[in-house]
Structures are given as structure tokens and as C-alpha cells.
Design a protein that fits this description.
The chain is of the alpha/beta class and 259 residues long. Helix content is 17%, strand content 22%. Helix 3 links the parallel strand 4 and strand 5.
Length: 259
């Protein structure tokens, strides 16, 4: 099967910032974010109803600040080779009522899953479950931790970064995923965009300015190199919403051939 469709959705300030400062997480944040986003948006609900994604995607940076030390794990002393096979326990993959995956791209093994079953978030998320994307250089202690916690994972690429194309192919081929909705930060969404893996972009701009050098922003991808072209977008819709928010919905067009 072809790779899943990838739809991006972000809520940002008018200057494209996704958080308040470099030391504020995308998930969780702090109370000042209410000056940007009042939490009453229905766009995410519309996108889930319209696209029916089976994966909600985040990067590890949504959970753990860069440079922060996650809780240490006990060392792994056995043969690590079996850990580097995709871990898809049948009791989880085939469980009754399964609907989708909360998925983290986490090659460095930074995320400690406080909640793995979506039922903890309320009725709308019953049937959703945690899933990690790792690579062949992910620490074995982390893979052992995921297996102890019965959190499935897919191994995508040799490292040091997750091979996102391989990850999407495995999501489609092994788990039957047809659509991924990424609400990740700029680094992961930027990497997906640079790899030509994004099909649709949804941005809700809020009437506030944050600024700040290094503050996480939309599509924090590596700079364009000589011969690289900007990604062209085709406007699907533009909607002014309550409170001065603007929702822009774009289809991603194929990048032009390098000259």
C-alpha cells in the first residue's frame, strides 16, 4: 500500500510561534498561552471527522524540552538484537474496539509515557493507544522499557534520525493506517515537509504576537540549500473565525524539479 496521507494542524500566533519561549513545551505550555488560544477551536474536531486519521503524531520535543534529562532507565544487560525488531504485541494490535494511535517519533528514547490508553482522556479517545517510532540506534534500555510497558513500536531507519518515509510505510503496511494527523512542533513537521511527506497543511493563526529568537515556530526545517525550492501550496479554504482567528487550509503541491 502507498504511504498514509499526512495532514498537519497547528495553532500559532500571528507571527507563527507555536509556544511562548524556547523553554515552554508545545504540550502543556503555561497559562500565558490563553492570551493566544482560548481553547475553544473546533478545527481539530472537524479535521478528525473529515479525514478520519488513525494516527495522531507528535515529536519527542512536544513532551520533553531539548536538553532536559528524562527519568533514567535501568540498563539493559541482555542480547539487544531482538529489541530492534518492530514490537507489535497481538494483545494490543488486535484488541477489541481499537480506533487509533497516539504516536511519538522518538529516536533518542526521551518520552516516558504517563498515559498509554486514550480512555484516560475521556470518551472521545476510547480505543486509542500509545505507539513509538524509533530507529536502530535508539538505546536498548528504552526499547526494553517500551516492551515492559507493552507500548508498541516501529523501527524506522539506522539512525541517528528516524527515517520518516520508512515510518510512514510501516504505519500503512503493518498497521493499515491510511491517514496521519500531525499536531507536532516545527522540527518534526519541518522534517516531514522537507522529505515531501506532507499532503495538507492547516494553520489557525491567533490574534497575538509572541516573537523571540529561538521560540519554536511553524516548520523549523533546515535552511534551503542551493537548488532547493520553497514548497508550493494551493489554497483550499480560508475562514475568519470567532475572536479574530484565521484558519488557512492548504494542499501541498509537488516541489518543482531542481535545475
Amino acid at each position: 500500500m502507498s504511504r498514509p496521507r499526512v495532514v498537519v494542524h497547528n495553532i500559532a500566533s500571528a507571527d507563527g510561534r507555536l509556544t511562548l519561549a524556547p523553554d515552554v513545551l508545545l504540550l502543556g505550555g503555561d497559562e500565558r498561552w490563553r492570551a493566544v488560544d482560548d481553547g475553544n477551536s473546533s478545527v481539530g474536531d472537524w479535521l478528525r471527522a473529515h479525514h478520519a486519521p488513525e494516527v495522531m503524531l507528535e515529536g519527542s520535543g512536544s513532551f520533553v524540552l531539548e536538553g532536559a534529562e528524562p527519568e533514567p532507565l535501568p540498563p539493559f544487560d541482555g542480547d539487544p538484537a531482538p529489541l530492534y525488531e518492530d514490537y507489535l504485541p497481538g494483545a494490543i494490535i488486535g484488541r477489541a474496539g481499537h480506533r487509533g494511535w497516539f504516536c511519538a517519533v522518538d529516536g533518542r528514547g526521551r518520552v516516558r509515557w504517563e498515559v498509554k490508553d486514550g480512555a484516560a482522556f475521556g470518551p472521545a479517545w476510547v480505543g486509542w493507544y500509545a505507539l513509538s517510532i524509533v530507529h536502530q540506534a535508539t538505546p536498548p534500555a528504552y526499547l526494553a522499557y517500551l516492551q515492559r510497558e507493552e507500548i508498541p513500536y516501529l523501527v524506522a531507519g539506522p539512525g541517528p534520525q528516524v527515517d520518516l518515509a520508512t515510518a510512514l510505510e510501516k504505519l500503512g503496511g503493518k498497521l493499515g493506517v491510511a491517514c496521519v494527523l500531525s499536531t507536532a512542533g516545527g522540527r518534526l513537521n519541518g522534517a516531514l515537509l522537507r522529505a515531501g511527506l506532507v499532503d495538507e497543511i492547516n494553520i489557525e493563526f491567533c490574534p497575538a504576537i509572541i516573537g523571540g529568537i529561538g521560540t519554536p515556530a511553524l516548520f523549523d526545517a533546515p535552511p534551503l540549500q542551493a537548488g532547493d525550492w520553497p514548497t508550493r501550496l494551493r489554497l483550499l479554504s480560508a475562514e475568519v473565525r470567532d475572536g479574530g482567528r484565521v484558519w488557512l487550509r492548504y494542499a501541498v503541491e509537488q516541489a518543482p524539479v531542481r535545475e
